[in-house]
């Protein structure tokens, strides 16, 4: 198997184990066993278990932020931008559930320097969401709100999917994006 595919398999397997057992309770031996390889073979791809958590979290946050920045650049009304942000977040989270759950739950397990770098990416993503909300208020599309608190609330309801969403279950990612998007827009609607 080529190196890139093997690295992806390694990251996916580690994320699944971190989600199931927790980062601290998962050993390099557990990951090697799940991959069906010797522990020593893993060190061809990584130096430490922390490297795995860092890569999983960094890749996840970079993809999320990149999608948000692309949406931000589009010439759309703030309501449509917000719906696209919700759709993108839910699509990525449900596609890579183990990676997102790992990133959300285990970020504090990283060393300070790595954690600071990832928090900066996360903050960048949250900033795009807040700016979209502020734009909606400024243009009269949304009622007066505290964009920081409402941004956290929106992220909270979307990120809670890691607790209950089941791939192939009753709700598809597009169903969820529609329901969540409609709910969020209704909550932001100006009172008449």
Please tell me about this protein's structure:
The structure is a single chain. The protein is elongated. Helix 1 (3-21) packs across helix 6, helix 4 runs antiparallel to helix 5 and helix 5 packs across helix 6 (97-106). The chain has a single domain, classed as Tetracycline Repressor, domain 2. It is built from 10 helices and no strands. The mean pLDDT is 95. It is mainly α and 192 residues long. It starts with a helix and ends with a helix.
Question: What structural keywords apply?
Answer:
192 residues, 0% strand, 75% helix, Tetracycline Repressor, domain 2, mainly alpha, 10 helices
What is the structure about, briefly put?
The protein is mainly alpha-helical and 192 residues long.
Give the count of helical stretches.
10
Q: Quote the average pLDDT.
A: 95
> What spatial form do the alpha-carbon principal axes imply?
elongated
What is the structural class?
mainly alpha
Give the biggest beta sheet: none
Could you give the distance between the termini? 61 Å
The CATH superfamily title: Tetracycline Repressor, domain 2
In total, the number of domains comes to: 1
CATH class: Mainly Alpha
Estimate the strand proportion: under 5%
Q: Nearest-angstrom radius of gyration?
A: 18 Å
Low-confidence segments, given as residue ranges, are none
Helix content: over 70%
CATH topology: Tetracycline Repressor, domain 2
The count of strands amounts to 0
SSE inventory with pairings:
Layout (H helix, E strand, L loop, with lengths): L2 H19 L6 H8 L3 H4 L6 H25 L4 H18 L1 H10 L5 H27 L8 H13 L1 H4 L8 H16 L4
Helix pairs in contact: 1-2, 1-4, 1-6, 4-5, 4-6, 4-7, 5-6, 5-7, 5-10, 7-8
């Amino acid at each position: 198997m080529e190196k890139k595919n093997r690295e992806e398999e390694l990251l996916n397997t580690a994320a699944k184990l971190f989600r199931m057992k927790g980062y601290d309770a998962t050993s390099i031996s557990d990951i090697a066993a799940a991959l069906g390889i010797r522990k020593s073979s893993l060190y061809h791809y990584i130096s430490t278990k922390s490297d795995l958590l860092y890569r999983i979290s960094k890749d996840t946050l970079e993809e999320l932020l990149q999608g948000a920045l692309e949406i931000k650049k589009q010439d759309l009304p703030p309501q449509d931008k917000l719906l696209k942000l919700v759709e993108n977040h839910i699509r990525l989270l449900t596609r890579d559930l183990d990676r997102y759950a790992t990133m959300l739950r285990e970020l504090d397990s990283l060393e300070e320097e790595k954690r600071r770098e990832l928090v900066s990416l996360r903050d960048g993503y949250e900033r795009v969401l807040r700016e979209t909300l502020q734009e909606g208020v400024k243009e009269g599309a949304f009622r007066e709100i505290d964009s920081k608190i409402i941004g956290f609330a929106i992220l909270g309801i979307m990120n809670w999917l890691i607790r209950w969403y089941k791939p192939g279950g009753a709700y598809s990612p597009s169903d969820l994006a529609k329901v969540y998007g409609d709910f969020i827009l209704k909550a932001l609607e100006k009172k008449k």
